[in-house]
Amino acid sequence: MKKTVLNKVFLWLLLALPVLAFSQATVSGYIQDELDGSPLPGVNVVIKGTNTGTTSDFDGKYEITVNSFPATLVFSSLGFETREIQVTDATTLDVVLVESATGLDEVVITGLATSVKRQNLANAVSTVSSQELVGTTSQSTVDGALYGKVPGVNITASSGAPGGGFALRLRGVSSINGNNQPLIIVDGVYYNNVEIPSGLRFASGANRGNEENSSNRLADLDPNDIQNIEVLKGSSAAAIYGQRGNAGVIIITTKRGKTGKTKISFSQDLGSNKIANPLGIRPWTADSVEATFDAGERDKYNATIAERGSLYNFEDIIYGETGFITETRLNATGGDERTKFYVGGAYRDEDGIIKNTGFDRLSLRTNIEHKISNVFDFTSTTNYTRSNSSRSFTGNENEGGLSYGYTLAFTRPWNNLFPDANGNYPNNPNYPGNPIFVRDNARNDDTNNRIVQGLALNTNILTTDVNRVKLVLSGGFDYLANETNVYVPETHQAQIGGQGGFVAVGKNNFTQFNTQAIGVWDHDAMGGDLGLTTQVGVTYLSQESNLVNSRGSLLAAGQTSVDQSVNQVIDQNRTEEEDFGFFAQVEGNYRDQFIATLGYRMDKSSRNGDPNKFYGFPKASLAVNFNNFDFWSSEAISQLKLRIAYGETGNPAGFGATFTSFGANNIGGNIGQSVLAAKGDPDVEPETAKEIEMGFDMGFLQNRITFEATYYNKQVKDLILTRALPSSTGFTQETTNLADLRNSGVELGFRWDVISNRNVLWNTGILFYLNRSEITRLDVPAFPQPGAGFGLGLGTFFIEEGKPVTQLVGNIDGVQTQVGNVEPDFQMAFSNNLTLFRQFDVSFLLQWKQGGENLNLSTFLTDLGGVTPDLETPEGQARLATPANALRFVEPAGYVRLREAAVYYRLPTETVNDIFGETVEGVKFGFSGRNIFTITDYSSYDPEVSVNGGAGLSSGIEVTPFPSSRQFYFHLNVNF
How far is CA 794 from CA 202, 468, 488, 860, in A? Predict the structure, then answer.
């Protein structure tokens, strides 16, 4: 009996072992680029329906163990079309991947811990790759690099100073008093994009801190570190971010390591900065001098002409410097199956077009991904930045004698303002400031030290054929230490008999900490036809700021410290904010045909009237890929997707709006406190945006031609405004919910992969977008928005029910009249990228902004001073004869601009090998330019203007800005 059993067992093993050996075997091969046959490292090779996978090595080779046959291997890599190949036994399988013309296989974030392929996306999420961001020319800041690359985004430069200053508006203005800049997430860390006032206004006489020409702190992030950017433009996409997503969300992912041998890349950029559009000076004659001023000025004019043969061109003297730009970058990337790393450093030094202005930034980055085991893996991203800027003095002032444009408006070009042999500067006889003295001796500087640390830990809790459960713990902190320094010598003309010298020193610290815990469950139902992804989690955000500004006036001779002044003032502004939220989201994908999402987020914030009350923000979306249905047979139309999405987001009140503050008083030499005039509202609700978005995506000829169309309608409810109160209340004003706003618009995108073969690659793209806004409810009488203009006399933003939130209104013949609208009629961008014989790269980006008006108050000042360049023309004289009201100074602000252009050349591989051997893998060099030319009817330096910085209703009002510049570069890239 025992012998019979043993014989059966032996027979079973004899039959089964070959089967087992056959069912578990190795598939290996080589993966290459279809275009040039080069090996592709880092390609993901996964057995479909499992977590078993590997990646190709540096030589494009891969090897994977398959437990049972038949099996389907999925080959995927960013920028290439995904391939699925069935294998029935152990074999050598070489694979060719084709570049993706449309990015349909690109993965897009749809939740805080989940993503989806673009072909299944139900929102119009825009993605900007590293190549699109910085591949054409050198970019100083991230926001400045986004021009013309994202539909639905209106970008306005608030300053032409090195280091930028930009206002970003995603799908229009989303708040009147509150935040309009999008939330920025860098590697999962909430990134502080604050504008920091320096105290300059206390010397210049400017009205507010947002008129101090400050940069926003996205300037600290090196654009060259970025792998890709995703822009969630509306509430339907940004709802998962709750009450921080009202103005949209920009998600930035920095570069990661790649499997294979360590690669080192060195890049050097050399460039120049030059004023883009000098206005010139008025072509004076002796007669026009006397007609404008008097005979005494005519005598001065004649004396200057006799002495030097020409007038002083103070515009060229102040704005005419050629700034030198250099940027050096070095990075290394590599890794194996367990650990991948990216380490890089960069230093940029940019001189401005004004002497003693500039911006420099040192950036160091380390990104590490490590697979601890099949259960645990983590990602760490670390970035240290040190930046310095010298922005000098531009923009609005009131008799401070500091702002160059303001001073030049009243400076007559026959007056010599240069110092004498002893270094003494003459006074300006026509305005209380000598611009050459200010340029040479006054300072407006800032220094920033910043560290941003992100960390994510993934725990794979369960993995089966149909279920995959993981826990994601992530978080990070952003610490920014900012120092500002403003110094105006006591010998400055406006300081003599006035403040007697001025110094302001700012010590400002910002700390942000965010963390989240998310559980993700992937489930395959209906035999794998239905994929369900469920995520639930909690989030926490803490923000603290401490701004201390110490100012001194009546300085001791030659001293630059606050303690060497007689009159000293210290201002301190501290804030503490906390947000806490829950969220849940379910995504369903039925055979890539129907893709639906339902989600809900609940947030509470210390900035709300009730800090313990939760507010809900739902989201829902549906996408239908008709081309994935069995009945679809069209070869010409390779993609047809209809999509619709809905979502809500919020925006809490500003810090301090919910409570009434006390102010310190000196009472008989003792400290005392009194109630301030602004009344807090403990019942204030967050502003809430509700957006519905719908559209379609089409692809033709295997997606060589793609077209996207989107319509959105965003209703912003309970806008928080400030209203006046009767004196009988004991207060002067109150901030509460008083209005509603609507934004609606259209976004179109067209892309054509015109030629794609071994010798020629040519693709072209067109973007078109527009936005319309309207105040749909206003519970107070129409009013000029405080801090967004200069009154109805000269023109201001005016909040009025039934009108655009971006309208400009002035008092014309005693009637409040809309004289303009800063919102463009539409914007377009036209891009082309051409590669010839795999060696020459040619690219350009052309941007067209049609319509929209600016309020040009620089002309108001130069007309007052009699120095506007066109005052010798009939048009200029006719303008002088009209009343000095808003209608006189409103100008069309449309333009066509060649934003970027470049030509690059790659040395042939054979040439590189002959010169450098195996040390160097590739050499590329070329030339590029930014802001190469602009066609516009606008009469000033640049139709992109904002005297009020990047916050609130900021764009479209000009007062003597820092002129924009034209930049040209030489580039050298060497890969080792």
Answer: 23, 64, 30, 9
Q: Is the pLDDT of residue 420 over 60?
A: yes
The two most distant CA atoms of the chain are separated, in Å, by 134
Residues in the chain: 976
Q: What is the pLDDT of residues 751-785, one digit of tens each?
A: 999 998 888 999 999 999 999 999 999 999 998 88
- pTM for the model stands at 0.90
Summarised one tens digit per residue, pLDDT across range 597-609 is 999 999 999 999 8
Per-residue pLDDT band at 1 (split at 50, 70, 90): very low
How many Cα atoms occupy the beta-carbon half-sphere of 158 within 13 Å? 27
Cα 694 to Cα 171, 621, 741: the distances in Å are: 14, 9, 20
Q: Are strands 25-33 and 91-92 parallel, antiparallel or unpaired?
A: parallel
Q: Is the dihedral of CA 226, 230, 233, 234 positive or negative?
A: negative
Model pLDDT, residue 196 = 92
Reading phi first (left if > 0) and then psi (alpha if -120 to 50, else beta), residue 802 is in left
Q: What is the CA radius of gyration of the chain?
A: 31
Q: What is the pLDDT of residues 227-238, one digit of tens each?
A: 999 999 989 889
Q: Could you tell me which residues come within 8 angstroms of residue 125 by beta carbon, excluding any fewer than 6 positions away?
A: 108, 118, 230, 231, 232, 233, 237
C-alpha closest to that of 765 among 94, 78, 128: 128
Instruction: Give me the DSSP letters along 705-725.
Output: EEEEEEEEEEEEEEEEEEEE-
Please report the pLDDT score of residue 13 as a whole number.
Answer: 41
275 vs 964: CA distance, rounded Å: 6
Please tell me the distance from the alpha carbon of residue 411 to that of residue 405, in angstroms, as a whole number. Answer: 10
pLDDT at 2 over 50: no
843/133 Cα distance (integer angstroms): 13
CA 660/CA 680 separation, integer angstroms: 4
Q: What SS3 state is found at 871? A: helix
Distance CA 602, CA 686 (A): 13
Measured distance CA(275)–CA(161) in Å, rounded: 11
- pLDDT-derived band at 972 (thresholds 50, 70, 90) equals very high
Q: What whole-number distance in Å separates Cα of residue 116 and Cα of residue 230? A: 13
Q: Which amino acid, one-letter code, is at 399?
A: E
Q: How far apart are CA 226 and CA 328, in angstroms?
A: 16
Place of tokens 């305005």: 431
Q: Among the residues of 170-312, which ranges form H helices? A: 201-204, 235-238, 286-292, 295-308
Q: Are 544 and 511 in contact (CB under 8 A)?
A: yes
Determine the average pLDDT of the residues in 955-962. 91
Alpha-carbon span 954 to 934, nearest angstrom? 22
pLDDT above 90 covers what percent of the chain?
A: 68
